[in-house]
Amino acid sequence: MPTNTPPTKRSNNRPNKRFPWRWVGFVITPLALAILVGVSVVSEKGDDTVAEAAAFELTGTDGQTASLEDSLAEGDALLYFSMGVGCDGCFAQIPELEAAVAERGLNFVPIMVDPAPLVAAEAARFGIERPIYIDSGSAVSDAYGMVGIYGHGDRPSHSFALVRQSGEVAWVRHYAEMFVPTDALFGELDAALKS
Fold first, then answer.
1. Chain center to CA of 29
2. pLDDT for 119
3. Cα(130)–Cα(107) distance, rounded to whole angstroms?
4. From 3.30.565.60, 3.40.50.20, 3.40.30.10, 3.40.50.10260, which CATH number describes the 30-194 domain?
5. How far is Cα 122 from Cα 65, in angstroms, rounded to an integer?
């Protein structure tokens, strides 16, 4: 037997209208992701415009100081800016690249922004003997346009800059990955070295 239940009355006597903006979140989220992916693709392509390299003098994890001028004394240099402590791939990348960079006649200059004792401890964990240069305050990283890439507002992400002995930045690449496959990196770098 059916029951006769009276309909529930709304206390404000307004019709049941759905707020049309409640679907905005479903549209904005995919749009924001699409923009991030687009920025990622553009950033990985890098910037091949030639610019003057910013001079620097940084102290390494070995306590020795080196300048851009020192790095360019015998030829071109590959500056490697990375996130640093907390990024295992950033440290693993250094021994992976050293020999190949030297084969190309480049001076390899890894730069991180964390305090030297922390960087030295992580470097030792990965068996890295070469000095890593400390950019405390991120001034050098910022001067090379390495800060703020891929959401890291106070430090580099995983970026490279080829500086010619003449003092010009000839090639820059930013990568979303925290460990770049060497064949991909050197495919791009070798093309830049030939130009």
1. 23
2. 97
3. 11
4. 3.40.30.10
5. 20
